[in-house]
Structure prediction request, 600 residues.
Amino acid sequence: MNKRFTLCLLFVLVLVAACSGPAGSSQNAQQGGAVTSIQNKGSDTMVNLALAWAEEYQKEKPAVRLSVTGGGTGTGMSALANSTTDIANASRQITREEKAEADKQAYTAVEFVVARDAIGVIVNPHNPVSQLTMQQISKIYKGQINNWKEVGGEDRPIVRLSRETNSGTHVYFLGTVVRLGNAKDTDIFSSDTLLLPSSEGIISEVSDNPNAIGYDGLGYLTPSVKILAVAEKPGKPYVIPSIETVNNNTYPISRDLYMYTRNQPAGEVKTYIDWIFSAPAQKIVSDLGFVPLKKK
Amino acid sequence: MNSNLTSGSKIKPAERIIIFLVQAAGYLSILYVALISLFLLKEGSPALLSVPLNNLFSTTWYPIENHFGILPLLAGSLLITVAAAVIAAPLGVGTAIFIAEIAPGWANEILKPLVEILAGFPSVVLGFIGILVLSHTFRVYLNLPTGLTAFTGAMLLGWAAIPTIVSVAEDAFKDVPQSYRHAAMALGATRWQTIWTVTLPAARAGVLTAVMLGIGRVIGETMAVMMVTGNAPVMPSGLQAIFMPARTMTATIASEMGEVANGSTHYQVLFFIGIVLFLFSLAINIAVFASTSRRIKHNDRLLS
Prediction:
């Protein structure tokens, strides 16, 4: 909840920053238009990134007012369907149901890959386990491995932590890790998996509890938890997530981060999205612990 | 009531407006309750048609893959509510007895406002205390796999319910006529005997109301529960389930309502859970009403 509060605070600050300063009125006059406001909503994973982009962009273009809110990828996509946001942030691709909703309303959800992210699997620093294969992680989360000694650790029960089901990170982890990318697999998380409402909840429980295993976006991991090296298959090398290992595709749990708009963007929204692909905007991506897009 | 007011001499037009406003406010609250239940029924009852009953009453809750078993959520709510009541009722009633019967005047003046401050604690704050202090302490000293359990939630909710129980139960004790106590004392009863055999039975209905209202507070609580119970939709099996994670109906609605598409099956099921919750608190209210109305009849008999 701490995070929600901070987000609200940041949101207010962005608004204040956007409104304040006499520069606003004079520049509006120069650009010959009223203040444009862009609504940006969705993924909690991306919310810090989206806020940083918005702040930077408004320094360059005070005439554009960006408001950024989180709530989860699902929230952002339904806001796009209800036309209550201009841009939806998504940490996963659009689902079949969401596409059907878009077809029903006769618009196209246009997709932009705006950054990349790796998901780190984390344990308590006191846990001697420091590497796992994807198959082991999958079995742990399906409830087939229940004690740390089965994967080379101490004789302790495993406590599984996950984000809530409305999180894009949850859906991505289910598909890529729990089901190992097999689309026909219908296994789900073991029912005793703790579903925590925020990234901070996972970090604080993992840093406190030597039994816990959790996962979260690279940008959220702190030194108070231990990041595991992950191997794609038994026998393959164990890789620690980092910008290099994500961009050379050796770290197996990495994904693209998206922005969606209703139809092809035009006007200020288009200018904003174009700006996101620029070098200064991509520098913010790496500053926040995400992985910038490779230069084309 | 209206007839009493109008049967007097002429009423000024201004008063007539005020009477109308007060009446309107009263009727509006009835209207609101009716509209809310209608809305709940309208949004939630289609779930019974769109989800097969053996899915709806199964033990797997994983809505993004169309597993809509509400039983673990129901059980989680019940488990936490019962445990919280077991914790809060003796403490709350005991505190009320102390304030009403035993504490000297100056202690009363300190205790009462303190209890009221306790009632004003936002549940997010309680949740924070739960995460930072309780869950860690329980995990270490009770040797649990994790501190985010139903028990942690029940402790916090018990804490949240105590102020409600104390203030209502204390009023019930204050309502017991002084003559009862004097009579008991005159018969040679000690203070403890007076409280246990005279005052408490006489205030029984009020105390019951207090406990029920406390339970009402517990079952509707969301934020603190969502933060400390771990939210794992496990079907409790046996008594040790209290020391395992659980997921409540309120936490489920709160964390999932934001994401669902309007009118989807998941949306309908969440509203169906709302109906179940509504029935729960209705049952509690009816129980309170029944016990208090019986008390009035009982008193009438006693006095006549």
